[in-house]
Design goal:
Helices cover 32% and strands 21% of the residues. It is of the alpha/beta class and 606 residues long. It has a domain at 493-593: 2-Layer Sandwich (GMP Synthetase, Chain A, domain 3). A nine-stranded mixed sheet has the order 2-1-11-10-12-13-14-15-16. The relative contact order is 0.12. The structure holds adenosine-5'-triphosphate (ATP) and magnesium ion (MG).
C-alpha cells in the first residue's frame, strides 16, 4: 500500500486526542510520587535529553570486556567476566520447574556448567559458525547451553518448545543445524522429522536415558560429566555470528535473522537503561528464549549487567505468576501485551490476593500495548507499564518509555540514545509531526541484523532506501518526540479514503468493559474500498447479544473518528495468535474472505 498523504481524519483526531488526553491519561511523574517514595527511583539513565545529545556507541564500549585487538565474545561478557567482578557467588538464575521446584545457580555455577558443555560440544566436533539448536522448555540447561554455544563461537538457535513438526522442520532445515539439544518429552517431535534433516549429526538429550538412545545420540549428562570445567572462551570477532533466530511469523513466513557478538553492546546498554537493572534486582522476563525477547533480555542483556534472572518453566496462569513474583520477590518484570490482557481478564481480585510489594518496575513488548491496559496496571499494580518497541531484526530495544520520562499510555516511547528513528513516506522523506508513515531507523545501531539466513534478497528489502532501515511498521511521532504505533504496514485499513490503523480501533474496543481482546481488519467493500471489521473476545461474565454489540459499537464510535468505528463486530472464543502471543490479523482476514491462509507454522494451536 502506498503512503502518500492527505492526512486522514482519524489520524488528525488522534493527534489532537493525544494532546487533550494528556491531562487525563498521561501519567506524569507527579502521579507516581507514592511509588517513587516506596522505591526511590534513581534511574540508570537519568537525563534523556542530555544523554541523547552526547552519547555515542564507541564510548559505551568501556562497559564491556574486550579481548586483545577488539575481539569480543558475548558469552564472556554475560558470564565469565563475573568471575572477577565480585559476582561469582551471586545468583545468576532462579529456575522454577513446572511443579514449582526452585533451583538456584550462581554465576560461578553457570560459568562452570557452560564451560563443560562448550568442551563437550567441541569434543563432538562443533566449530565456529556451526549451528547448534536448543529445543528445550525454560529450564536451566537452555540457558547453560546457549551460553556454551556462544563461548565456542558456534551459532545458537533457540527453538520454542511448543513448536509443532512443521515449525521445527522449517527452522532446522533452513539453518542446516548440525546438533540439536532437547529432552525426552520433546525428542519424539524431532525424531518424527529427522529424515528431512540431512545436516543433523548429533542429538543431545537433557535428562536422557542412555538405553533409549540410538547412534549419534547422547545424554547431556554423560557428555558434561567427563568434560572439564575450564574452557577458554573463543576470541570471536565482534562481527562473528552469535545467534540465528526466526521471527514470529505474524505477517508471513518466519525469517531467519542472524545476529553477531557485537550485539552484546546493545543488549548491555538497553538492559541498563530500559530494563533499568540494578545490582539488587530480581528480574523476570516471561518471554521464552525461542523468541528474541527471551534470548536478548532473558539471557544476554541482564547477565551482561550481572543481574539475577528468573526462568519459569510453567505456562501462563494468573495466580501462579503472581505467586512467583511474591516468592522470589521479583522487582523488575518484563512481559507482553497478550499476557497483560490475560491478567486483566483474570480480574482485579486475583491481583489483590497477592502482595506484589517487591515489584518496582514493569515493562511490555511484542505488540502494541492498549492504553486501557496501562491504566489498569496503574490501578492494580500502582505502576505504569513501560512499553518499548523493537523487532527480531533490530536485536535490541530501539524505542522505549524509559523510567526518567513520563509514560504516555498507548505510545511506544522515544528513541534511545544512539538511535535515530523517524517516520517517512515511501520515498524515505521524513513526514511532518503527527503524520502517519513508515517507521524507519538510521542504520548503525550495534545489534542490527547482519543478514537473513540464506536470503540476501529479503535482507536487502529492509534497506531498500539508502540511509534507512525499514521496519515494516507504521507509526507517527508527536510533538514531544514520542512514537505511536499504528499497525503493520500491511494491516493499515483504507476506508472511504481514510487510513485507519487496527491498533487504535482495537484499543477503543478493549476499553469497553465487555471486551477482553480485539483484532481488527479491513474488509473489501464496494462503496468504501474497505470497511472495518472487528473480531472480539468477551470478558468472563458477558454473553453476546445484539444489544451488547450495539453498545460496543456505540462506545467505539464515541472514542474514534466517525469513519473509524467497526461496522461489523463478530464475537469469537479466541483470536488466532502466533506462538509468541501476537494476534494474526492476516489469518482473520484470510478466513473472513475465504483466501489462502499462507504460512501457519507459527500459529498457536495448529
Ligand atoms: P514476522 O516478522 O515474522 O511477521 P513479527 O514481526 O511479529 O513476525 P517479531 O520480530 O517477534 O516478529 O516482532 C516484531 C514486531 O512486533 C514489530 O515489527 C511490531 O509490529 C511488533 N511490536 C513489537 N513491540 C511493539 C510495541 N511495543 N508496540 C507495537 N508493536 C510492537
Ligand atoms: Mg516482523
Amino acid at each position: 500500500m502506498k503512503l502518500v498523504d492527505s492526512p486522514g481524519k482519524s489520524k488528525g483526531k488522534k493527534v489532537a486526542d493525544a494532546a487533550s488526553q494528556d491531562d487525563e491519561h498521561h501519567i506524569p511523574l507527579g502521579a507516581r510520587q507514592e511509588i517513587i517514595k516506596k522505591f526511590p527511583i534513581d534511574p540508570n539513565l537519568k537525563n534523556y535529553e542530555d544523554t541523547y545529545a552526547s552519547f555515542n556507541w564507541e564510548d559505551a564500549k568501556k562497559e564491556l570486556t574486550y579481548f586483545a585487538e577488539g575481539k569480543l565474545n558475548a558469552a564472556y561478557n554475560a558470564v565469565d567476566r563475573h568471575m572477577n567482578d565480585g559476582r561469582r557467588n551471586k545468583v545468576a538464575l532462579y529456575a522454577i520447574s513446572n511443579d514449582n521446584k526452585l533451583e538456584k545457580f550462581t554465576f560461578q555455577e553457570i560459568y562452570e556448567a557452560s564451560n563443560r558443555m562448550a568442551n563437550a560440544l567441541r569434543e563432538l566436533g562443533v566449530r565456529k559458525g556451526d549451528r547448534v539448536f536448543v529445543f528445550l522448555p525454560r529450564v536451566a540447561e537452555l540457558y547453560i547451553c546457549t551460553v556454551a554455544i556462544a563461548k565456542l563461537g558456534a551459532i545458537a538457535g533457540p527453538l520454542f518448545s511448543a513448536f509443532g513438526p512443521d515449525a521445527l522442520r522449517d527452522r532446522l532445515k533452513d539453518s542446516g543445524a548440525t546438533v540439536v539439544i532437547t529432552n525426552p518429552a520433546l525428542k519424539p517431535k524431532l525424531d518424527g522429522i529427522k529424515h528431512d534433516l540431512t545436516d543433523l549429526q548429533y542429538t543431545i538429550v537433557v535428562n536422557g536415558d542412555k538405553k533409549s538412545l540410538k547412534a549419534q545420540e547422547y545424554t547431556y549428562e554423560e557428555l558434561v560429566e567427563k568434560a572439564s570445567t575450564k574452557f577458554e572462551c573463543v576470541r570471536t570477532d565482534a562481527e562473528d555470528p552469535l545467534y540465528l533466530l526466526y521471527t514470529s511469523g505474524t505477517t508471513g513466513k518466519p525469517k531467519g535473522v542472524v545476529h553477531v557478538h557485537n550485539d552484546i553492546l546493545g543488549h548491555h546498554m538497553t538492559s541498563k537503561w530500559v530494563l533499568d537493572l540494578k545490582e539488587d534486582d530480581v528480574y523476570w522476563c516471561t518471554a521464552d528464549p525461542g523468541w528474541v525477547t527471551g534470548t536478548v533480555y532473558g539471557i544476554f542483556g541482564p547477565w551482561s549487567n550481572g543481574t539475577s534472572v528468573v526462568c519459569y518453566e510453567g505456562r501462563f496462569d494468573a495466580d501462579s505468576w503472581y505467586e512467583l513474583v511474591d516468592r522470589l520477590k521479583v522487582t523488575v518484570w518484563y512481559t507482553a501485551p497478550t499476557a497483560l490482557r490475560m491478567l486483566m481478564k483474570a480480574g482485579d481480585d486475583v491481583v489483590y490476593r497477592h502482595s506484589l510489594e517487591s515489584l518496582r518496575y514493569i515493562l511490555s513488548v511484542g505488540e502494541p500495548l492498549n492504553p486501557e491496559v496501562v491504566r489498569w496496571g496503574m490501578k492494580v499494580y500502582g505502576l505504569p507499564i513501560h512499553d518499548n518497541w523493537w523487532q527480531t531484526e533490530t536485536g535490541m530495544q530501539l524505542i522505549a518509555n524509559i523510567p526518567c520520562l513520563p509514560v504516555k499510555p498507548g505510545s511506544m516511547g522515544r528513541p534511545l540514545p544512539g538511535v535515530y528513528a523517524a517516520v517517512v513516506n515511501d520515498d524515505g522523506d521524513e513526514v511532518e509531526t503527527g503524520e502517519l508513515g513508515r517507521l524507519v531507523v538510521r542504520p548503525g545501531w550495534p545489534a542490527q541484523l547482519r543478514t537473513v539466513w540464506r536470503n540476501k534478497e529479503k535482507y536487502d528489502e529492509y534497506f531498500k532506501i539508502p540511509g534507512w532501515y525499514f521496519s515494516g511498521d507504521n507509526a507517527w511521532k508527536d510533538e514531544d518526540g514520542y512514537f505511536w504505533f499504528v499497525g503493520r504496514a500491511d494491516d493499515v485499513i483504507n476506508t472511504a479514503g481514510h487510513r485507519v490503523g487496527p491498533f487504535e480501533v482495537e484499543s477503543a474496543l478493549v476499553e469497553h468493559e465487555a471486551v477482553a481482546e480485539a483484532g481488527v481488519i479491513g474488509k473489501p467493500d464496494k462503496e468504501r474500498g474497505e470497511i472495518i471489521k472487528a473480531f472480539i473476545v468477551l470478558n468472563n461474565g458477558f454473553t453476546s447479544s445484539d444489544q451488547l454489540l450495539d453498545d460496543i459499537r456505540e462506545h467505539t464510535k464515541r472514542q474514534l473518528a466517525a469513519h473509524a468505528y467497526p461496522r461489523e463486530i463478530e464475537v469469537k472464543e479466541s483470536l488466532p495468535k502466533t506462538r509468541s502471543g501476537k494476534i494474526m490479523r492476516r489469518l482473520l482476514k484470510a478466513w473472513e474472505l475465504g483466501l489462502p491462509t499462507g504460512d501457519t507454522s507459527s500459529l498457536e494451536d495448529d
